[in-house]
């Protein structure tokens, strides 16, 4: 019990630690911003925005377009490196969407790789090649950063850095950065053998590709910095100094893992550029930089995805090469969630800043002042609602679509009524116009808030409200506080409106949080009812596999598709949601069920995995961004080739002859007669368990259960009416596959009893017309020949060769090889990253009935 509690606490720590570190870094930079902005006023920032020349904004837009064009060259060069040919427009499109998403969402390696995985896998790029593309892109990214940072530090050192380091140290740091880049080029010339990192093998690029990497990355960083430089006023430091500031801020933003480095980047820039520009000019430039470089490309990516879905519906195009299809369904809701969150933040910021008094006076001639006050207050409440609904939007919930539309309408009305803020209303209307044609993305009908918010969502929502409150405090810090402020109602009383709106927003969020924490959550993995089992049994008898019969152990939950034509059976241990095998049912239902299961696990903060999936089905999981680990190989014997005649199966003929001499008979007990022999079967099972000193397993393995054993035939060996050994059968409904599950024998059985049982069973299966006999898995078998997850292959291969203390892996495969079977790979599909060891431990505990029983 203590071990389980420790593991649960470790799971919670892993879930909360990264966002808490991000919050800590963000808090430090906000403190820096607060300190640096003490001398400026809110209206100074607005004046700085108004004073920026139009040509500067146009130049920033031009640099942004050029930068995203250069970003596509990352992938173009990577494809040249791996020697694959794909249409350049496809590469450019994928790169643009990848960077538009990763720049704004953050976690570039994960989010950008997920986009590439979903698109490139559709166009025939293998998983190993995809990871090589990611490795080349990551290397390219840092090469340009080192080269430009080295040049900036060596020849244009920033005065702040010079003061913080010993004399000349900054220049030597620049020389070291450039030396690292030169070293990479030299290594690409002299090293001919591939690099091997944790089992992943990758050859170094040629000198020409290495030069291309450096030039492309330098152009990328230089153009990104040029966007910000174009938005700064004239008369500041040289471009080289500004570039060093930009690179330092970007690196700290990347380290923080805050999406887009939001707040961290700004804090560093304000601190380092403070000696050169007034703070209001820096803040104005940062606001425009965020809008031009981050938000606008994300809007274009969203419009593309929504447009692709509309084109798909209009043309009824279903072919793989002509539309992105499921890709749009996966990413468009997530981008819409980002914009929903931004809309909520916009309303909160609007409630924390002064209104245009000219517009207020104009409206006051037509509407009562109480309407302004109510609209201002309600606008902030709608902002909180949109922050909360953003999570439901990312989950593609049906009800969320309509609630967001209603909230946007309410936000538009409050924006117009509180100060005729048509700019704010126009932005909300634009989002609403994008939402309306996206209706088909939102087909999930789960309850809105039946899940706990993840740590990332909680921190993001609280940070958004906190940022709006800080902005209001900054804006109205010249107003002397008094208790009377809360009750003052007048056209020019912006500070009281801010206080009331912020309090309303905070109370709304607090009430929601208390309600959400205290209310009981529904069970996440309820065992199936008799009616559900009957429905699942009907689906099972329309397909060929025997693995789905394990649902009759009644230890797994079921998830059906909407049409009730297919299902996934799964169990939960810790945070790991384990689906056993591929979805059961028609092939066309598999992609939707896989996606639904992943989303359901995500709803509850779980880690979705699929255990023992077929190699032919991996593309379904790849399209949803999942990684793979080979579990081993499953042995399938074609029954038409099995015969006790001849030399190939001589050993099995010898075993049957020995049993015959000892008067041991073989027979098949039909399901209706199994009840009568259950006491004898129980005695054999208990004897076998005691002799092996092991306990019953479950989930992916059968255990002794009266109802389960009585549903299928049982093969037995008998001697003078006493059962010596038995094997419960799983007879494929279509007559294609036959397998065994529970196999046990008494300790006083004759030598070779199980060989004889198998021989009789194979002959019987062939006579009954079955085509294949499933001999089951050989764990860790064949891992060294797999290109998927090299590190796992090495670890699993080591266990396979040297793990006799835990399990006779090599001996099991050698025994099954005696039947001369056909070996088929089986995989684990999981979200990737460092979760694999914990996932495997949870799966083992799920099968064993607890972590402490894994080795029993």
TrEMBL record:
<feature type="transmembrane region" description="Helical">
    <location>
        <begin position="827"/>
        <end position="852"/>
    </location>
</feature>
<comment type="similarity">
    <text>Belongs to the LPG synthase family.</text>
</comment>
<keyword id="KW-0808">Transferase</keyword>
<feature type="transmembrane region" description="Helical">
    <location>
        <begin position="130"/>
        <end position="152"/>
    </location>
</feature>
<dbReference type="GO" id="GO:0046677">
    <property type="term" value="P:response to antibiotic"/>
</dbReference>
<dbReference type="InterPro" id="IPR051211">
    <property type="entry name" value="PG_lysyltransferase"/>
</dbReference>
<feature type="transmembrane region" description="Helical">
    <location>
        <begin position="498"/>
        <end position="518"/>
    </location>
</feature>
<dbReference type="GO" id="GO:0006629">
    <property type="term" value="P:lipid metabolic process"/>
</dbReference>
<dbReference type="InterPro" id="IPR024320">
    <property type="entry name" value="LPG_synthase_C"/>
</dbReference>
<dbReference type="GO" id="GO:0005886">
    <property type="term" value="C:plasma membrane"/>
</dbReference>
<feature type="transmembrane region" description="Helical">
    <location>
        <begin position="172"/>
        <end position="190"/>
    </location>
</feature>
<dbReference type="Pfam" id="PF03706">
    <property type="entry name" value="LPG_synthase_TM"/>
</dbReference>
<feature type="transmembrane region" description="Helical">
    <location>
        <begin position="369"/>
        <end position="390"/>
    </location>
</feature>
<dbReference type="GO" id="GO:0050071">
    <property type="term" value="F:phosphatidylglycerol lysyltransferase activity"/>
</dbReference>
<keyword id="KW-0046">Antibiotic resistance</keyword>
<dbReference type="InterPro" id="IPR022791">
    <property type="entry name" value="L-PG_synthase/AglD"/>
</dbReference>
<feature type="transmembrane region" description="Helical">
    <location>
        <begin position="454"/>
        <end position="478"/>
    </location>
</feature>
<feature type="transmembrane region" description="Helical">
    <location>
        <begin position="399"/>
        <end position="419"/>
    </location>
</feature>
<feature type="transmembrane region" description="Helical">
    <location>
        <begin position="262"/>
        <end position="279"/>
    </location>
</feature>
<keyword id="KW-0812">Transmembrane</keyword>
<feature type="transmembrane region" description="Helical">
    <location>
        <begin position="91"/>
        <end position="110"/>
    </location>
</feature>
<feature type="transmembrane region" description="Helical">
    <location>
        <begin position="331"/>
        <end position="349"/>
    </location>
</feature>
<feature type="transmembrane region" description="Helical">
    <location>
        <begin position="425"/>
        <end position="442"/>
    </location>
</feature>
<keyword id="KW-0443">Lipid metabolism</keyword>
<dbReference type="Pfam" id="PF09924">
    <property type="entry name" value="LPG_synthase_C"/>
</dbReference>
<feature type="domain" description="Phosphatidylglycerol lysyltransferase C-terminal">
    <location>
        <begin position="544"/>
        <end position="830"/>
    </location>
</feature>
<keyword id="KW-1133">Transmembrane helix</keyword>
<keyword id="KW-0472">Membrane</keyword>
<feature type="transmembrane region" description="Helical">
    <location>
        <begin position="291"/>
        <end position="310"/>
    </location>
</feature>
<protein>
    <recommendedName>
        <fullName>Phosphatidylglycerol lysyltransferase</fullName>
        <ecNumber>2.3.2.3</ecNumber>
    </recommendedName>
</protein>
<dbReference type="InterPro" id="IPR016181">
    <property type="entry name" value="Acyl_CoA_acyltransferase"/>
</dbReference>
<feature type="transmembrane region" description="Helical">
    <location>
        <begin position="45"/>
        <end position="71"/>
    </location>
</feature>
<dbReference type="GO" id="GO:0055091">
    <property type="term" value="P:phospholipid homeostasis"/>
</dbReference>
<feature type="transmembrane region" description="Helical">
    <location>
        <begin position="15"/>
        <end position="33"/>
    </location>
</feature>
<keyword id="KW-1003">Cell membrane</keyword>
């Amino acid at each position: 019990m203590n071990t389980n509690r420790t593991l649960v606490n470790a799971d919670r720590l892993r879930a909360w630690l990264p966002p808490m570190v991000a919050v800590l870094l963000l808090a430090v930079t906000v403190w820096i911003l607060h300190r640096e902005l003490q001398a400026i006023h809110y209206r100074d920032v607005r004046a700085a925005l108004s004073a920026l020349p139009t040509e500067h904004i146009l130049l920033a837009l031009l640099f942004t377009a050029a930068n995203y064009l250069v970003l596509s060259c990352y992938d173009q060069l990577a494809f040249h490196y791996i020697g694959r040919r794909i249409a350049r427009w496809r590469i450019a499109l994928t790169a643009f969407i990848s960077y538009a998403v990763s720049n704004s969402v953050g976690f570039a390696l994960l989010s950008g790789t997920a986009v590439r995985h979903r698109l490139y896998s559709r166009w025939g790029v293998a998983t190993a090649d995809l990871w090589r593309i990611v490795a080349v892109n990551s290397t390219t990214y840092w090469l340009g950063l080192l080269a430009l940072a080295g040049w900036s530090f060596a020849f244009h050192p920033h005065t702040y850095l010079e003061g913080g380091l010993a004399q000349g140290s900054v220049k030597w740091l620049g020389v070291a950065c450039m030396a690292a880049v030169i070293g990479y080029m030299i290594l690409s010339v002299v090293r001919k053998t591939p690099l091997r990192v944790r089992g992943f093998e990758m050859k170094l690029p040629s000198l020409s590709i290495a030069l291309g990497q450096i030039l492309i990355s330098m152009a990328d960083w230089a153009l990104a910095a040029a966007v910000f430089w174009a938005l700064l006023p004239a008369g500041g430091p040289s471009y080289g100094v500004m570039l060093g500031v930009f690179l330092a801020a970007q690196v700290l933003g990347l380290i923080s893992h805050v999406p887009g480095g939001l707040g961290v980047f700004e804090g560093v820039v304000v601190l380092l550029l403070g000696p050169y520009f007034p703070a209001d000019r820096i803040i104005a430039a940062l606001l425009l930089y965020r809008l031009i470089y981050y938000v606008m490309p994300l809007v274009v990516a969203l419009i593309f995805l929504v447009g692709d879905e509309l084109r798909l519906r209009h043309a009824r195009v279903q072919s793989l090469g002509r539309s992105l299809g499921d890709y749009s369904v996966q990413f468009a809701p997530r981008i819409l969630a980002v914009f929903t969150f931004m809309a909520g933040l916009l309303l909160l910021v609007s409630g924390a800043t002064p209104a245009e008094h000219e517009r207020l006076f104009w409206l006051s001639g037509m509407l009562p002042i109480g309407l302004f006050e109510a609209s201002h207050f309600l606008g902030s409440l709608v902002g909180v609602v949109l922050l909360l609904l953003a999570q439901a939007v990312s989950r593609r919930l049906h009800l969320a679509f309509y609630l967001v539309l209603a909230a946007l309408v309410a936000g538009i009305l409050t924006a117009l009524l509180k100060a005729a803020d048509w700019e704010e209303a126009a932005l909300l209307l634009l989002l609403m116009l994008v939402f309306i044609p996206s209706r088909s993305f939102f087909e999930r009908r789960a309850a809105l808030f039946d899940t706990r918010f993840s740590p990332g969502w909680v921190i993001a929502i609280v940070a958004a409200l906190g940022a709006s409150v800080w902005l209001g405090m900054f804006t109205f810090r010249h107003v002397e506080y008094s208790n009377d402020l809360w009750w003052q109602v007048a056209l020019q009383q912006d500070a009281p409106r801010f206080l009331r709106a912020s309090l309303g927003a905070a109370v709304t969020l607090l009430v929601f949080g208390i309600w959400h924490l205290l209310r009981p959550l529904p069970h996440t993995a309820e065992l199936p009812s008799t009616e559900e089992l009957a429905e699942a049994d009907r689906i099972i008898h329309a397909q060929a596999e025997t693995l789905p019969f394990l649902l009759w152990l009644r230890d797994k939950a079921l998830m059906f598709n909407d049409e009730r034509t297919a299902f996934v059976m799964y169990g939960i241990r810790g945070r790991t949601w384990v689906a056993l095998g591929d979805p059961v049912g028609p092939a066309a239902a598999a992609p939707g069920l896989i996606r639904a299961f992943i989303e359901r696990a995500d709803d509850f903060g779980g880690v979705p995995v699929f255990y023992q999936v077929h190699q032919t089905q991996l593309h379904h999981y790849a399209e949803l961004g999942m990684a793979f680990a080979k579990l081993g190989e499953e042995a399938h014997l074609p029954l038409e080739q099995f015969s006790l005649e001849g030399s190939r199966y001589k050993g099995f003929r010898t075993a049957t002859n020995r049993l015959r001499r000892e008067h041991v008979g073989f027979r098949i007990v039909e399901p209706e007669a199994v009840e009568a022999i259950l006491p004898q079967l129980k005695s054999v099972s208990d004897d076998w368990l005691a002799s092996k000193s092991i306990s019953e397993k479950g989930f992916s393995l059968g255990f002794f259960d009266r109802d389960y054993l009585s549903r299928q035939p049982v093969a037995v060996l008998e001697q003078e009416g006493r059962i010596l050994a038995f094997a419960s059968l799983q007879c494929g409904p279509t007559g294609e596959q036959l397998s065994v599950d529970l196999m046990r024998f008494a300790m006083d059985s004759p030598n070779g009893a199980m060989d004889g049982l198998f021989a009789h069973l194979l002959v019987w299966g062939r006579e009954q017309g079955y085509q294949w006999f499933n001999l089951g898995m050989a764990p860790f078998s064949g891992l060294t020949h797999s290109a998927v997850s090299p590190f796992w292959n090495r670890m699993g291969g080591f266990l396979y060769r040297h793990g006799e203390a835990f399990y006779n892996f090599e001996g099991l495969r050698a025994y099954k090889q005696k039947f001369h079977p056909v070996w088929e790979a089986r995989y684990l599909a999981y979200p990737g990253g460092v979760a694999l060891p914990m996932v495997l431990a949870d799966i083992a505990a799920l099968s064993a009935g607890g972590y402490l029983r894994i080795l029993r």
